[in-house]
Amino acid sequence: MSAIQNSFDVVVIGGGHAGIEAAHAAWKIGVKTAMITMELDAIGRMSCNPAVGGVSKGQIVRDIDALGGLMGLLTDKAGIQFRMLNLSKGPAVWGPRAQCDLKAYSRVARETLENCKGLHLIQGELAAFDRMPNGKMELTLLSGKRFETKTLVITSGTFLASKMFTGLETSIGGRVGEPSADALSKSILSNGLRLRRLKTGTPSRLDPSTINFNILQEQPGDENPWPMSDRSAGPIDNGNCCWITRTNIKTHDILRSGFKDSPMFSGRIKGKGPRYCPSIEDKINRFGDKDGHQLFLEPETKDVERVYLNGFSSSLPAEIQLDALHTIQGLEKVRVMQIGYAVEYDSIDATQLYPTFECKTIPGLYFAGQVCGTSGYEEAAGQGMIAGINAALKTQNAEPFMLGRSESYIGVMADDLSHFLLDEPYRMFTSRAEYRLFLRSDNADSRLKDRARKIGMIDDAQYAAWETRKAEMARVQKYLAETPVTAAEINPFLEAAGQAPTRESIRLNTVLRRPGIDPEAFFQKFVPNSKLIRRDMWNLFAEEAYAGFFARQAKEIEHEKKMDRIKLAPDTDFSQISALSIESRERLAEARPLTVGSASRIPGIRPSDIMVLTHWVENH
Ligand SMILES: Cc1cc2nc3c(=O)[nH]c(=O)nc-3n(C[C@H](O)[C@H](O)[C@H](O)COP(=O)(O)OP(=O)(O)OC[C@H]3O[C@@H](n4cnc5c(N)ncnc54)[C@H](O)[C@@H]3O)c2cc1C
Ligand SMILES: NC(=O)c1ccc[n+]([C@@H]2O[C@H](COP(=O)([O-])OP(=O)(O)OC[C@H]3O[C@@H](n4cnc5c(N)ncnc54)[C@H](O)[C@@H]3O)[C@@H](O)[C@H]2O)c1
């Protein structure tokens, strides 16, 4: 057996979206960190659609940015088209989204990690990990190389014991052209952890020279685009467009004729697929009466080398996919460069993890990303941040870092994954967050920057810039609350916004509570010498516009935070709390909650149990 080559504080397995954030966060906190991944050239590879963000996913990217992470910065560098989705609704549910040049994304991700001085990037496949008597983890790569680490973060995506399917054809691999990580899957099982099968899929990639773009509806980027990160230095590239087309009855008939050879419907794929990113055959099967489904044609690169057909994910036989494509407007003569396929893989049952993503039974072992049962780059990156931060903090014997459900979508996701057993891939939605009016893309910095600063994720220069913004927001907020405006001054503005004029002077802040107001025009006109950046104008606007809701929810949130502050030791012996029912003791012993708040979210735990637990903590 070869000697141990190097010893680290944190080792991250995988260079996908979760691995990038985990390795960067641990490095930023200042501990000795390595990323080990199968292929260094595949760092940041986008397995599926060349886009980052969207509704609720965009908020996750903003939160990663506020925490000092990379996804927003990488997207701004590699983006080729930026749109704010849901603009017709309130800012709480706006979703920043960007098409990316996927080659550029992968390149800037790798360059960014290479520029992290002292971060080790190692090419190799982890075959096994074992806990050593000294509490560290020993890692053995497929090549036989060995390393040791205090903490280990596994972000292996769709690669554990993975199989790909197109019709009756099956091959081994986690992504087209890449192998499956079978040995690691076995090692996870031999460490006593539970795995289960999930499935995801991807559509065909099309040859742009065979698409009739002239007859397709173009979808340009926003006129006044938002970058993902306010830390991005350069201008963003927004000059590229996507195109829209639709399936039709003929397409559906052809697809239906292939159902008998579908690996999904024939039961050859056992894993559950993502309900909310269904394949085209799933959509037709479930919503058979619809006469068409909208499809987006998205360029994979700025020079449109290939086109991704968003909405047409499929694992039907290749000839059926191709015949069906030829019935679609604009695609009558299309040539396919890579046919759609499904992938089935092992994922970890995430109820075995704390909301820090640390394993309950193996201290120092963390999982993050698609391996935890989620679907999506952004969900993966958000988990990677939290796992990387906690893996680093653990090596410093520091308090774990957790985000609450009222603080971030990442907190909602960590809480959901660790408490509820999923039977299908988990995708984020605004409806999963009970406090979504707080979790906006405009106020990510207000919610998270100070917390990130405390754990070393935000450097002095970044924090100074944030303090300047904070001070300006406070000044303007005070000014708005204290400054009256006469009817003569404000009425032309109100009328232009379609609002009834006022007869008396009113305070400036009350103007923002009226519907139809353009905040950017308002701040420019009524706040002299404002240095607010655009994002902060919308933040102040939303704080006023939603003030009534916030006041109503404030008590609920305070109660939840209070419960989350009541800590339970990881080794709490619930069997000794005799005032709890035997059933509740068993549930608590199994779930091992770290706070009373977390205990309250375990299925089957009742309010009376929480009262007992709270008293018990007070007396111990
Ligand atoms: C076919 C397909 C379709 C998808 N559709 C979409 C989509 O439309 N949109 C979307 O957002 N998401 C989609 N996904 C999922 C998306 O790829 C993931 O959500 C996202 O990439 C997850 O990031 P991750 O970091 O968890 O894993 P990945 O991006 O999969 O990265 C995993 C990394 O771990 C490495 N690795 C794995 N095992 C080992 C090992 N033993 N040793 C060393 N390195 C290892 C791999 O080489 C890889 O670099 C799809 C995935 C696939 C494969
Ligand atoms: N892991 C998986 O299996 C898997 C598979 C497919 C999708 N996904 C996830 O779902 C997302 C893709 O799902 P989706 O189909 O809802 O698309 P999306 O998240 O990219 O888009 C969401 C909505 O935005 C609009 N939209 C789509 N393309 C657009 C474009 N080019 N420009 C402007 N608006 C556009 C559409 O109304 C769409 O319903 C990915 O971001 C990924 O996270 C995961």
UniProtKB/TrEMBL annotation:
<dbReference type="Pfam" id="PF21680">
    <property type="entry name" value="GIDA_C_1st"/>
</dbReference>
<dbReference type="InterPro" id="IPR049312">
    <property type="entry name" value="GIDA_C_N"/>
</dbReference>
<comment type="subunit">
    <text>Homodimer. Heterotetramer of two MnmE and two MnmG subunits.</text>
</comment>
<dbReference type="GO" id="GO:0050660">
    <property type="term" value="F:flavin adenine dinucleotide binding"/>
</dbReference>
<keyword id="KW-0520">NAD</keyword>
<feature type="binding site">
    <location>
        <begin position="273"/>
        <end position="287"/>
    </location>
    <ligand>
        <name>NAD(+)</name>
    </ligand>
</feature>
<keyword id="KW-0274">FAD</keyword>
<feature type="binding site">
    <location>
        <begin position="14"/>
        <end position="19"/>
    </location>
    <ligand>
        <name>FAD</name>
    </ligand>
</feature>
<comment type="function">
    <text>NAD-binding protein involved in the addition of a carboxymethylaminomethyl (cmnm) group at the wobble position (U34) of certain tRNAs, forming tRNA-cmnm(5)s(2)U34.</text>
</comment>
<protein>
    <recommendedName>
        <fullName>tRNA uridine 5-carboxymethylaminomethyl modification enzyme MnmG</fullName>
    </recommendedName>
</protein>
<dbReference type="InterPro" id="IPR002218">
    <property type="entry name" value="MnmG-rel"/>
</dbReference>
<comment type="similarity">
    <text>Belongs to the MnmG family.</text>
</comment>
<dbReference type="InterPro" id="IPR047001">
    <property type="entry name" value="MnmG_C_subdom"/>
</dbReference>
<feature type="domain" description="tRNA uridine 5-carboxymethylaminomethyl modification enzyme C-terminal subdomain">
    <location>
        <begin position="544"/>
        <end position="615"/>
    </location>
</feature>
<dbReference type="Pfam" id="PF01134">
    <property type="entry name" value="GIDA"/>
</dbReference>
<keyword id="KW-0819">tRNA processing</keyword>
<dbReference type="InterPro" id="IPR040131">
    <property type="entry name" value="MnmG_N"/>
</dbReference>
<dbReference type="InterPro" id="IPR004416">
    <property type="entry name" value="MnmG"/>
</dbReference>
<dbReference type="GO" id="GO:0005829">
    <property type="term" value="C:cytosol"/>
</dbReference>
<keyword id="KW-0963">Cytoplasm</keyword>
<dbReference type="InterPro" id="IPR044920">
    <property type="entry name" value="MnmG_C_subdom_sf"/>
</dbReference>
<dbReference type="InterPro" id="IPR026904">
    <property type="entry name" value="MnmG_C"/>
</dbReference>
<dbReference type="InterPro" id="IPR020595">
    <property type="entry name" value="MnmG-rel_CS"/>
</dbReference>
<dbReference type="GO" id="GO:0030488">
    <property type="term" value="P:tRNA methylation"/>
</dbReference>
<dbReference type="InterPro" id="IPR036188">
    <property type="entry name" value="FAD/NAD-bd_sf"/>
</dbReference>
<dbReference type="Pfam" id="PF13932">
    <property type="entry name" value="SAM_GIDA_C"/>
</dbReference>
<dbReference type="GO" id="GO:0002098">
    <property type="term" value="P:tRNA wobble uridine modification"/>
</dbReference>
<keyword id="KW-0285">Flavoprotein</keyword>
